[in-house]
């Protein structure tokens, strides 16, 4: 039985994760941390029934807890505390929160190598999204240009999304292309062409009713190609997340990206 603590447990994604853990036969939810719904039984909150696990507002209040894995889907500003708490106790860490800086990633890598805690971070836990990025990387070898449109719910804290940024980083051919913006091009409204990251234009859309969506639009002479992934329910992240949970004890050190857990080359 894999004993797990979830940080950000009362959020939309946190509730989905907690419910998913409670449904798995080889996992046990032993702790739930959030600044909301403090004192409430997490099972009752997610419609599972009483579990005896009450939500606390700090990891330090998980007295005498011996989890094997900490999952953090809270906010990038809170991840440092989660990682520090886990590393001090030899607990493995899985982070699905986006918006982490390169400095944070470097620190986590160093911590994983100097401790007993393995750390796994993924900008997107949806297997379909990982395949979308991999296919986009392949397509970028054959098309002259591309742009990324990412669409998320209006409560998302960061833009562009971590998935869009990571996708742009993978598009080697596009990234190295010179003359990305036409010389005659004029933006009548600032940023109407989106933000430029690694030589790729990224457009962020935030609207109620959306969950998480991204399309990468490629163009070359006489043709276009659109590769799109849609998350219609937050449950789409659970298969990838639980793959990470079940494998993290055997992945020494620091791992970045769900693709490392998939046999996709």
UniProtKB/TrEMBL annotation:
Keyword DNA-binding annotated: no
Pfam families: DapB_C, DapB_N
Annotated catalysed reactions: (S)-2,3,4,5-tetrahydrodipicolinate + NAD(+) + H2O = (2S,4S)-4-hydroxy-2,3,4,5-tetrahydrodipicolinate + NADH + H(+); (S)-2,3,4,5-tetrahydrodipicolinate + NADP(+) + H2O = (2S,4S)-4-hydroxy-2,3,4,5-tetrahydrodipicolinate + NADPH + H(+)
GO CC terms in record: cytosol
PANTHER family referenced in this protein's UniProt entry, alphabetically: 4-HYDROXY-TETRAHYDRODIPICOLINATE REDUCTASE 1, CHLOROPLASTIC-RELATED, DIHYDRODIPICOLINATE REDUCTASE
Subunit field text: Homotetramer.
Name of the protein this chain belongs to: 4-hydroxy-tetrahydrodipicolinate reductase
Organism whose genome encodes this protein: Candidatus Hakubella thermalkaliphila
Gene: dapB
């Amino acid at each position: 039985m894999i004993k797990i603590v979830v940080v950000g447990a009362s959020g939309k994604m946190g509730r989905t994760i907690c419910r998913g853990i409670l449904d798995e036969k080889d996992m046990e939810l032993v702790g739930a941390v959030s600044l909301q719904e403090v004192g409430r039984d997490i099972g009752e909150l997610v419609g599972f029934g009483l579990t005896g696990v009450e939500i606390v507002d700090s990891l330090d209040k998980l007295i005498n807890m011996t989890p094997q894995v900490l999952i953090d889907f809270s906010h990038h500003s809170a991840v440092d505390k989660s990682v520090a708490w886990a590393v001090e106790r030899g607990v493995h860490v899985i982070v699905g929160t986006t918006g982490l800086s390169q400095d944070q990633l470097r620190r986590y890598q160093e911590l994983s190598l100097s401790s007993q805690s393995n750390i796994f971070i993924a900008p997107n836990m949806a297997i379909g999204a990982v395949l979308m990025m991999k296919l986009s990387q392949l397509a970028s070898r054959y098309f002259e240009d591309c742009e990324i449109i990412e669409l998320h719910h209006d409560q998302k804290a960061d833009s562009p999304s971590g998935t869009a940024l990571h996708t742009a980083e993978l598009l080697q051919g596009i990234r190295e292309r010179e003359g990305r913006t036409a010389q005659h091009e004029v933006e009548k409204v600032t940023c109407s062409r989106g933000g430029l990251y690694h030589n790729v234009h990224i457009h962020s859309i935030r609207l109620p009713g959306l969950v998480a969506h991204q399309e990468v639009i490629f163009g070359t002479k006489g043709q276009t190609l659109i590769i799109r992934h849609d998350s219609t329910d937050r449950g789409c992240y659970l298969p990838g997340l639980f793959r990470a949970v079940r494998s993290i004890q055997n992945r020494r050190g620091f791992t970045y990206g769900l693709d490392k857990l998939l046999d996709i080359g």
